[in-house]
Design a protein that fits this description.
The complex is a heterodimer of chains A (about 300) and B (about 260). Chain A is of the alpha/beta class. Chain A is built from eleven helices and 14 strands. Chain A folds into two domains: about 210 residues, P-loop containing nucleotide triphosphate hydrolases (Rossmann fold); about 60 residues, 2-Layer Sandwich (Alpha-Beta Plaits). In chain A, a hairpin with a 2-residue loop joins strand 12 and strand 13. The model of chain A has no long low-confidence stretch (mean pLDDT about 90). With about 260 residues, chain B is mainly α. Chain B has one domain. Chain B is about 80% helix and about 0% strand. Classes of the chains: A alpha/beta (about 300), B mainly alpha (about 260). At the A-B interface, helix 2 and helix 3 of A face helix 1 and helix 6 of B.
Amino acid sequence: MSIIDVNGLTCDYGRGRGVFDLHFQVESGEVFGFLGPNASGKTTTIRHLMGFAKPASGSCQIEGRDCFQSAAVIQETLGYLPGDICLFPDMTGRAFLSFMSRFRGMKHAGRTKELTERFELDIRQPIRRMSKGDRQKLALVCAFMHDPSILILDEPTASLDLLMQHAFIDLILEEKKKGKTILMSSHRFSEVEKTCDRIAILKKGRLKTVSSLEELRQTERRVYVITLDNEEAAQALCRENISVLEVDGRIVKVAVYRDLRSLLAILVNYPVSTLDNVGQSLEEIFMHYYGGEEE
Amino acid sequence: MNFTLFRYSCRKTFPLWLIFTVLMSLYAFAVVRMYDPDAGAALLSLTESLPQTMTILGMANDTNTFTAFIVNYLYGMLMLALPMVFTVIVSVQLMAHHVSNGTMSYLLASPNSRKRIAATQRNVLIVTLLLMLAACCGVTIVLCEYFYPGQLDILPFLILTACVFALQLAFAGMCYFFSCRSNGTVGALVINAGACLLFYTIRLLANLGGSLSYLRFVTPYTLINPAGILQSDLQSCLLPLILLVIAVILFSLANRSFQKKTMPF
């Protein structure tokens, strides 16, 4: 049985905003990345998983329980990091963590000490005086302190510096080893690349793809810049059966979908002076989905 | 009920509670010190010369006895209005404020159901109101006993205070209901203050008598008849039970509304 099961989730806010007919599952022990441009419906989906909103149609289930009806039971084993960090401004960090642990019914402070040390967080200061990064760290500690088996994290590293982003990635990898199920939305490709098993890409409230990193890499497109000896050769090359992105005088930009051999076979017949690979990262694949034309 | 949240909310409400309780106690002190059979006669002549003004303010009842005097000036206006203002502010602070600034997301992201969170905050509102009226009632009794020993009919006074508490509970139910439905602090404050002010104005208009006297049927204040309660009139003592029923219904509706609500965060 899947831990998280989203089945036909729809929530229409009008003017094309919301989420429409989402279907995806997150399996036990999986780290699931949730990506998409702004206003693509990531947070809306998470709000439904948290039971903050009732689906207009379709269903959301966590461990077989309806997310809206059984929110309190689900929350016993769930850790949540909101996208908007709105902590209790009148408390200190320590008071907030202590309040949350008692509010959750925890018998002791759980992982609070270990996590505050890991994120180098000073919990003595009042929350209203904390920097954005410190608030994010405090929210992270709050999400992990009761050692939940399922984690839902909405842009967990949005305000963290590079060092703390690494600390966060290490934490996620450790949790993954322990068999935790994690769903996280993110804008940072590096952290998704390092942590996620599968990735869902949302655009305008619809799922563009749900695939593993491996599958994404297989569809990976590489871009080569070919400089030829003269413009005539460049023009002739463009007429070949290859995917030309751009021609600029003697320079031709070509996209290759994992079939470099056929490109090389063609190039043998041309006066090629240089052949450069324009780095194609996972980021560019995402950009392809993010900015892709409408179907 | 969640005791951690209950304690936190009580602590947060305490400064406001203290201000209102002190204000009401000072007013009670002023009223008790005001009593003086001669001054009573002066106030009686004031009532005779300005009958309409005193009626509108709800201070035109028979003030022959000490208890009637205290009740008339204490529960005539300020002791009804101040707890209402407190209810308007605190009900919004307990629910709509948490939803508006997003801290409710932390309260809901815990093994506490919406029902339990709403019940906890409701209990904070009821308990603080109860303690406020109890404190003021206690202070009044102590002051009366100190300055005019044995003159206050304590039992009718306590029953009347209980009835006023029932009235405040009905208002608290209404304010809490609007607070549970609202997503914004300002919106909830405006609706609550507007609704309370409306009922209070209707009461003032109904007190005018004449063609507007039918208005007394649309304000819950009518269910409290201090003169009747002081005379231990059974009907006057039982009518406030309707206020309790209204309060129970409104609090249940508030709870239901909060459980079904789609949060804005």
